Amino acid sequence: MTDKILFVDDDSSILAAYERQLRKKFLVQTALGAQQGLAAVSNRGPYAVIVSDLRMPGMDGIQFLSHARQVAPDSVRMILTGYADIRNAIEAVNEGNVFRFLTKPCDPNTLAKALAAGIEQYRLVTAERELLEKTLRGSIRVLTEILGLLNPEAFGRAQRITRYAKEIALEMGISKVWQLETAAMLSQIGWIILPEDLLKKIYKGQALTKEETRLFNTHPSIASDLLAHIPRMQGVAKIIAYQEKRFDGSGLPRDARRGKDIPLGSRILKVVLDFDALEASGTQGTKALAVLKERSGWYDPGILAALEAVLELDQAKYELRDVSVRELGENMILAEHVRTANGLLLVTKGNQISRPMLQRLRNFASTSGIKEPIRVLIPLTGRIHTHHLEDRPEGGIRYDTEGPLRR
User: Fold this and answer.
1) Which of 80, 212, 301, 349 is the most exposed, fewest CB within 10 Å of its CB?
2) Residues forming a β-bridge with 6
3) Helix, strand, coil shares of the chain as percentages rounded to 5?
4) Beta bridge partners of 103
């Protein structure tokens, strides 16, 4: 019995009866009234099932479950009441998203079956969320790292904008960022359809012809179309589809969306993509931000303000250091491109070192050779463990830091 059930009622004797009847089958907790119930949901959860009386003083069961849903959306909600009618049932389903509507007195077997069904529903919901937020995202991360082996420039850009997008989301108080993070990681996969000559011009910042521009502008829609066929990825696909859409409605795709009608994730991507493009061309930090501010109507002002706050927080948080391949560690951020001894580009600057990337660099260092030293950014608050690569299976220097790394 690991899944907890919360009963909320304004009658303590009824709550005691629930505990006596169900304690051998379920892990039951109780709360006297709606306010105590909300406190329990916030402080003692998560609960698989929340069962509430309908008529309680101050806040009725429907209002309570509506508030509980905001705090704990995965919890399965039920009403158990002696005052049932059709209007109450409809209201409970519409406002509280109620899974079961039971009447008092409720046969113990009927109640137990309803609770068991509620726990099963909770497990299905949480398993799906775990699949989306962990398994799927982990698989996508593997795919993007494979992309990094094939196209380090596109992968490098995806990594940089993902880090900025997460920082902006944190600054704006956006708690569930898996869709945004996934969209940022996959925003450049449409580059795989671009000819090599076009990619070289893009990397060098050279002007594109009209036809090359038209071809380049198709990459967000290509990526979106690919992802739209994956279950549960439609939201991510939509964010990517609108990543080049300007706040005033201009840009691509050419439709009527503008302002807050553009997905929030797309508005964030537009800011970080253009900011990264400016930095890649040599316009750094606050100067790049100033350029964005001069582009009237292009960006959501709230996201620009969040980016400015992120850049301010980034000031003086890193030590710039030259290290050898032997001294590289996971989570270091590259301050310059990494190339082989004969000039082949391996990893672009701005990338955060991952374990596969670290292994790849070690392999090249032992075969083709790598230009050293490598310039990296190290967080000033980090505690560095200077084990050599061969001393630790996972390799390299590790940092005991909290929260996402900032550039």
Assistant:
1) 301
2) 29, 50
3) 55, 15, 35
4) 81
